[in-house]
Amino acid sequence: MPAGHLHLPKRFPFEPGLPDPSRTPEILQFKVWLLGISPLVWRRVQVRASMTLRELHGVIQVAMGWEGIHLFQFTLRARRFGSRELAARTPDVPLSELRLRSGTRFRYEYDLNVSWEHEVRLGSRHQAAPHKSYPICLDGD
């Protein structure tokens, strides 16, 4: 070996034959609850961090049983993202770009005439489970 060169053994960041964790999608777990209604109505969902706010809107629509025919907006750190008619920012921003931390809360409003307000809270972040499909609704009441 020439002087000045080190020979380091090859290292694998993961065991051969197992999925590369650096390529495993990050999953965000949110709790969504409807405000101002009793009894409490809530859902716990898991989505990929690469999902956009527009796609999260779709997940919430399905999880909460809404029809998806009204205007919507998310309010996060005094910025509004939502339907074009509301002059809000585009909701086509990936969740991963919003720099959400565990415990971050934001608003989701649907049907602004009736104003169904939801609070959305990021509970945890983890790597996708192998052979599991996302998004998924884990729980609710």
Concise overview:
The protein has 141 residues and is mainly beta.
Describe this structure in words.
There is one protein chain. This protein is 9% helix and 35% strand. The relative contact order is 0.25. The chain has a seven-stranded antiparallel β-sheet with strand order 4-3-5-6-1-2-7, with helices on one face. The longest helix has 12 residues, at 53-64. It has one helix at residues 53-64; strands spanning 26-34, 41-48, 72-76, 79-82, 105-110, 116-127, 136-140. The chain has a single domain (24-140), classed as MM3350-like (Structural Genomics Hypothetical 15.5 Kd Protein In mrcA-pckA Intergenic Region, Chain A, Roll), CATH 3.10.290. It is mainly β and 141 residues long. A hairpin with a 2-residue loop joins strand 3 (72-76) and strand 4 (79-82). The chain has one helix and seven strands.
